[in-house]
Specification:
The complex is a heterodimer of chains A (about 110) and B (about 120). Chain A is mainly β. Chain A has no helices and 11 strands. Helices cover about 0% and strands about 50% of the residues of chain A. In chain A, strands 2, 4, 5, 9, 10 and 11 form a 6-stranded mixed β-sheet that branches. A 5-stranded antiparallel β-sheet of chain A has the order 1-3-8-7-6, with no helix packed on it. In chain A, a hairpin with a 4-residue loop joins strand 7 and strand 8. The N and C termini of chain A lie far apart (about 40 Å). In chain A, about 30% of the residues are buried. In chain B, strand 7 and strand 8 form a beta hairpin. Chain B has about 120 residues and is mostly beta strands. In chain B, strands 2, 4, 5, 6, 9, 10 and 11 form a 7-stranded mixed β-sheet that branches. In chain B, about 0% of the residues lie in helices and about 50% in strands. Classes of the chains: A mainly beta (about 110), B mainly beta (about 120). At the A-B interface, strand 5 and strand 10 of A face strand 5, strand 9 and strand 10 of B.
């Protein structure tokens, strides 16, 4: 049972545009939602994270929007740059779960010049 | 602190052979995790340790897989009698653990890629 569903599978955005990746979760016990960025040949690296007590979190060009009632959250990358080209994973975990992350299937982002 | 280190980075083996991967976590991190990632998929949880205690194992971790963290520092993941379906990237991650802010941030290593012929 896939507990975190992610879309789209791939995304092409023009330089300067907005990249939007969506995730939906099923387990209402989840209380921590990070996004990870992975470059080829590297491990995933934490990009930004949110807890369900806020609806939005912004760090630089990266924003998470969170809708608790819909059990959905999304990553927005403003002013997308070629250096943002990578695979992005949403994830979720819950307090008391050993910080064990459940990942989405990933979105391969390509930012074109 | 050089982050999470994994060795070897690449391993090619023949079906039926045993392989062992090593992970050195960030030194002050109490928790250590193993994940498996196949092409085009997100990482899947395998097991995790709190210090030297193995607290949880996924159903993905068959009897051929064993993980240890003998002194609560580095960890090894051994796969016995490898099968072609074991071909994947094996990722190690570590975290502080606990309830303090930032304690639940997992820092991943670059992974060990296994190819079973």
């Amino acid at each position: 049972q896939q507990q975190v569903k992610q879309s789209p599978q791939s995304l092409i955005v023009q330089k300067g545009g907005i990249s939007i990746i969506n995730c939906a979760y099923e387990n209402t016990a989840f209380d921590y939602f990070p996004w990870y960025q992975q470059f080829p040949g590297k491990g995933p690296a934490l990009l930004i994270a949110i807890r369900p007590d806020v609806s939005e979190k912004k760090e630089g060009r990266f924003t998470i929007s969170f809708n608790k009632s819909a059990k959905q959250f999304s990553l927005h990358i403003m002013d997308s740059q070629p250096g943002d080209s990578a695979t992005y994973f949403c994830a979720a975990t819950f307090t008391g779960g050993g910080n064990k992350l459940t990942f989405g299937t990933g979105t391969q982002l390509k930012v074109e010049l | 602190d050089t982050g999470v280190s994994q060795d070897p980075r690449h391993k090619i083996t023949k079906r039926g052979q045993n392989v062992t991967f090593r992970c050195d976590p960030i030194s002050e991190h109490n928790r250590l995790y193993w994940y498996r990632q196949t092409l085009g998929q997100g990482p899947e949880f395998l097991t995790y340790f709190q210090n030297e205690a193995q607290l949880e194992k996924s159903r993905l971790l068959s009897d051929r897989f064993s993980a240890e963290r003998p002194k609560g520092s580095f960890s090894t993941l051994e796969i016995q009698r490898t099968e072609q379906g074991d071909s994947a990237m094996y990722l190690c991650a570590s975290s502080l653990g606990g309830t303090l802010s930032g304690a639940n941030v997992l820092t991943f290593g670059a992974g060990s890629r296994l190819t079973v012929l």
